[in-house]
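Researcher: Next entry in the queue.
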Amino acid sequence: MTSTASLAVRLCGTEQHEAPLRTLRAGSLSVAFDNGALRYIRIGTIEILRGISFLVRDENWGTCTPVLDDLRIDERPDAFAIEYRATCAATSGRLVYRARVSGSGDGALSFVTEAEPETDLLTNRTGFVVLHPIADLAGKPVRVLHQDGLERLSHFPDFIDPECPFTDVRALSHEIAPGIWATCTMDGDAFEMEDQRNWSDASYKTYVRPLRRPWPYRLPKGQKFTQAVRLHMSGTLLAPMSENPDPPIKVTIGGPAGRVPRIGVGVAADEARHALGNSDLIRQLAPQWIACQVDLRLGHGHDELERYAALTRLIGASVVLEIITRGTLDPFGELKPVADAVRRLGLNLEAICVFPAQDMKSVQPGAAWPAMPSFQESYSAARRAFPGVPVGGGMAAYFTELNRKRPPSEALDYATFTTCPSVHAADDVSVMETLEAIPHLIRSARSFMGELPLRVGPSQLGCRENPYGASTAQNEANGRVCLSRIDPRQRGLFNAAWIVGYFAACAREGIEAVVFGDFTGPFGQIHRKADFVQPWFDQQDSRTVYPAFHVLAGLSKLVGATLLSVGTFGADGVVTIAAENDRGVTLWVANLTAKTQSVRLSDAPSSARIALLGAEQFEQAATDPNFMEISARPLDDQFISLDAYAVARVDLDRPSSA
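Model: Structure for this entry, 658 residues:
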């Protein structure tokens, strides 16, 4: 079938649209209004807060999407006001609230809500969340006013704090420019801060109701409550500045900056047989290694290992075996049958990782860990069961868990963790923003793991396992859902751009290896019919691939090459990675935004060639796995126009100013 894919499906794999943000201004103050929440609170061009929102989170930490009505917005040159009514329907109840927002030219901002549960509501958190951006604030001073009235001078955490850096918070003040301080005051309940970089969010989050109190908790039907967040400035405000909505972007390729990391693919046990049915395509992806999971909680064993062995023979990649044990106090007894099966099958292992089942669930800082084998016992059992095989360790879940429970580096050959970009928010902008936090995760891991090599992944848009609730979230509507295995953007250009950004961030930080998604399935790069809806792809008669297939296949060709530094000037939202090998220099450029951006390439040699992967090329790219090679053309202009989430590969004969 040759039906045309809609633009929404090409970009994000779903027909569900996200409403554009509306920017409101009052003098030098500006905010973006996003379905009841405020984002990007700025004075002039300086971002003061990343966001303010009133959230209802269910007993599995799922975030309810508010439905707004009675919305009124009044905007004047020196002031704006917003009023609306919102309804939040959680899995175990329903709450409504009325909100009033006001902003003025002196930089003052007020956000007040009056909430009432229409039923009893079981929740892990209901109330205001305030986000401070990490850019320019990590490690910088902050004044903390506590509930007892005492103000203390401290610092925003530099390395990621595994616990709450500030508790019993009433107000936070930080200097936004010499002599100008921004103070954010929170009323209505006790607030505390967590370092949200733990979950790869690009923010410090101050939220209502301390986690030391029991959760989930119940909000009684009809019991009203009021909360407020207020922002004010001290000092002389900056004059409003005119903004160029489409600033010129210039990219400059510099000198050597390390080596391009290895790329691996994570293979779920139930997807291995589907991968074997796509042998030519997985050979083309050419990962250097595959991370194969054996989950003893699910009874995995010989059959799963046999399929992994077949995959290894097919593509010639090495294997890292990630074993999730049942967490008994006899880890060797659990691992020995797996090791025996590996030897019988002749499966050549590059390394193994062992994760007790108890480590697959989050434990709050200060809480007691369940009875389980120690790190030393697990790693010693692994070396005994798999003699001579390198042992990796850390967490099969997220950096959060690694940061809270740090393994002894001397017992390991490398450390590992992964990320999920939709733990707290699943909208497009928030998911892309998580790329800002990746360098912070890596540097923080090195701060306590020392010089031990680091590997990251398997990482992808969807959630493999939810450490914070009973299960991952359902997504029958094919939408953007927090902590769901099914993320429709996996199939769109969005994921292709996200992978370029993720890999570039890891490469710049000197990571040894990065693992992405899967070959097929909800985290895959190759389409197969499944038990979830995949618009347009499900209607095709021939085999198809997702846009990210081309990105991973292309980046795999750069593994081991000399990584080159790249400077990007003039705009946010464009990410690059460049490398040099005996074939020349390859530059990848990705647009991380939904708006068209233009990149200027000056002094590019006349022999330069470009392959563009954007919305116009989507269908051809989906049906031809060689698309990036056959579509490459001479670069005959100094400018590359990148539409929403588009990716470009530029091949140069030599390093040059671009």
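Model: Residues 261-360+372-556 form a domain with the TIM Barrel fold (CATH 3.20.20.80).
Researcher: Noted, moving on.
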